[in-house]
Amino acid sequence: MQTIKCVIVGDNSVRKTELLIAYTTNKFPFEYVPTVFDNYAVTVMIGDEPYTLGLFDTAGQEEVYDRLRPLTYPQTDVFLVCFSVTSPASFENVKEKWFPEVHHHCPDIPCLIVGTHIEKRDDPLVIEKLSRQKMRPITLEQGENLAQELGAVKYVECSARTQKGLKNVFDEAIVAALEPPVPVRARYKTLPLDIMPLLNKMKYVNVM
């Protein structure tokens, strides 16, 4: 069975662990959220072919983790580089820290830029808090522009709390891994070159 390794990186404010728990359990973890998500493997059917989607959480931006985090990167097939749309600082860190880090260690591996917390983008309290700092929530256009500037596969966004766009994030990650840029595609000669039409037929078999 083909395995797709997906690694998620970003600031602590992004709440990466909430994102992964919500995706694998189909519900938001309102009560307890562990510091780091246990690695999970989700078996999915794309057309008639089974794939294992391995999901790997990473520790945040504290300096102590900077040497440990890259140990997760070998054999990665796709990165999700995340920021919170309510945290301009986390958005800047995609450009200043996270994308450069994964690109340095894995220059040929596809990356998606992922905006989280989209349910709070229009929250008056969030807008007011940011406006006091002369800032505002990150827009869809800003996310798309950043992905284009960095040379990422694309920009996608979601809400772990409402699950809006959540499945699409991981659908796009699978597409990016199985249809990577030409320099990477040589590693996947036996895989279907166009799986997008099969995504609507994708079924989640089990979570391990």
UniProtKB/TrEMBL annotation:
Keywords: Cell cycle, Cell division, Cell membrane, GTP-binding, Lipoprotein, Membrane, Methylation, Nucleotide-binding
Gene3D superfamilies: P-loop containing nucleotide triphosphate hydrolases
Places the protein is found: Cell membrane; Endomembrane system
Top-rank taxon: Eukaryota
Biological process, per Gene Ontology: cell division; establishment of cell polarity; small GTPase-mediated signal transduction
GO cellular component: cell cortex; cell tip; endomembrane system; plasma membrane
Family, similarity comment: Belongs to the small GTPase superfamily. Rho family. CDC42 subfamily.
This protein's name: Cell division control protein 42
Native organism: Gigaspora rosea
Taxonomic path: Eukaryota, Fungi, Fungi incertae sedis, Mucoromycota, Glomeromycotina
